[in-house]
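agent> Task received from the user: take the single chain below, predict its 3D structure, and emit structure tokens. No templates, no multimer pairing.
agent> Plan: (1) validate residues, (2) run structure prediction, (3) serialize to tokens, (4) report one or two observations.
agent> Step 1 OK, no nonstandard residues flagged.
tool_call: predict_structure(input=
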Amino acid sequence: MLSKSQARLFFLTATAGFSLVFLGLTVDSIRQVPARSHADAMTPEVLHGRELWDDHNCMGCHTILGEGAYYAPELTKVVERRGEAWLKTFLRDPEAMFPGQRKMVNYHFTDEEIDAVVAFLGWIGGIDTNGFPAEPDLRAPPPATAVSAVATAGRPEKFGQVCVACHSLGGQGGNVGPALDHVATRYTAEKLDAWLANPQAIKPGTAMPDLKLAGNEREELVRWLMTLH
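)
tool_result: status=success, residues=229
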């Protein structure tokens, strides 16, 4: 049984000890902030993107770093998950990417503003968040596919960044547009090239957006799609 003086000494010693530990952890956390937030990468473009994010109340629908609303997708790692090309295409016309499925407002951003928003989201994604948000569970085997391994292995980066949002291949991808399995048996290279260059000119009113592909990107996609017999 401790005496009153002993109990008081124990209380004061424990309080001082825990206070020192708390202060030490606080100082260590503050010391790590610049590196973890990679503040050196906060460029004027990133700051402009942050201003656009705030001005348009994006957190009214989206969440970053655990803060915001959950009405729309969480965006902390969206650049890593979707890629810059897909995001820029989506921000130009959200409805065109997911007709009837998205309630994202088209803010009619300029190309400069789109670049700034994506730069801001890229900066957010580079913050060391100790594993938040959790990585998706990729342990489940992918669906069976009839597409040849050679064709899948040679898939252009642009297809994985943008096209799979609307089109599926081998059972994987979106369902807004038609599946692209065996597309080479239905179209010629010339028709695919003309379609990718200007979908509205071929079929006015189509849900297919103008992806504004560079000539080499379109050529690479057409060449690969023509291997999908």
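agent> Step 4: summary for the user.
The chain is about 50% helix and 5% strand.
agent> Done.
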